[in-house]
Amino acid sequence: MIVQWCIKGLSLPGGDEARALIDGQAGISSRWMLKYGRVSLSEFAAKLTEQNLDRHVNHFERRDPATGLPFCEESPFISLSCGTVERDAVAKTNFVHTARHTALWFGTQFGTQREAYLYTCWVLLAPRSAVSVPGVAEEVRDLNTYRRYSPFQTEGEVTAKVYVPATQVRGCEKWTWDRAGGVLRKEWEYLNPHFTEPEALSNVRDLV
């Protein structure tokens, strides 16, 4: 297993709500868990499928024919930014897409919101695909494992399942987007007093 640092960018009403996610120790939840609350192991098995993972990554807002709802409203997966490298073979150049840049892009709702809240956390990754296993995340950015083309590969995504425990969330940062000046500023950082460092585990891997 690999320990992977990640960042989750969220658009929230304000700092109180952002800090409450830390203080309440609820962790980072999928939309499915936020909608239905506690779920059984059998429900895990029914939702954690390769088809649903593909929907989450590539068809997030497409409506489900069975329910008529966009898949994003009931996805059991959580998109986390970890960064990645894009290779341009023609230009013979590698381009780094950092985790923080991607998280800020999502946290500001693609540049439409003034504030973004970034949560740094860690998850466990399996060395290969294990979609049906709730406790490990999927490294969908890895082209050696996920070889099907995805237009979103450069987002450097690792996908957690159902929720990220609060003890794996190091803290929250508030960033402000000055659209006129084109500048992002870090306003404050709020640390989780109950955070558990992953150093007790081996193979800790940092952000790109």
Write the layout of secondary structure elements.
Blueprint: E1 2-10, H1 15-23, E2 28-29, H2 31-36, H3 41-47, H4 50-58, E3 77-81, E4 84-88, E5 93-97, H5 99-107, E6 115-125, E7 157-161, E8 163-164, E9 169-178, E10 183-191, E11 204-205
Please give a structural write-up.
With 208 residues, the chain is of the alpha+beta class. The protein has one domain (2-205): Heat-Labile Enterotoxin, Chain A, CATH 3.90.210. The chain has five helices and eleven strands. It has helices at 15-23, 31-36, 41-47, 50-58, 99-107; strands spanning 2-10, 28-29, 77-81, 84-88, 93-97, 115-125, 157-161, 163-164, 169-178, 183-191, 204-205. It has a five-stranded mixed beta sheet. Strands 2-8 form a two-stranded antiparallel sheet. Strands 3-7 form a two-stranded antiparallel sheet. A hairpin with a 4-residue loop joins strand 9 (169-178) and strand 10. The model has no long low-confidence stretch (mean pLDDT 89).
Keyphrases for this structure?
single chain; 208 residues; alpha+beta; Heat-Labile Enterotoxin, Chain A; 5-stranded mixed β-sheet; 11 strands; 19% helix
Q: Which residues form runs of ≥5 with pLDDT under 50?
A: none
| Approximate strand percentage | 25-35%
Helix content class: 10-25%
Specify the CATH architecture.
Alpha-Beta Complex
Cα-to-Cα separation, first versus last residue: 19 Å
Radius of gyration: 17 Å
The CATH topology label is: Heat-Labile Enterotoxin, Chain A
Average predicted confidence as pLDDT:
89
* Text of the CATH class: Alpha Beta
Described by the principal axes of the CA atoms, the overall outline is globular
- Class inferred from helices and paired strands: alpha+beta
Total domain count: 1
**Largest sheet entry:** 5 strands, mixed
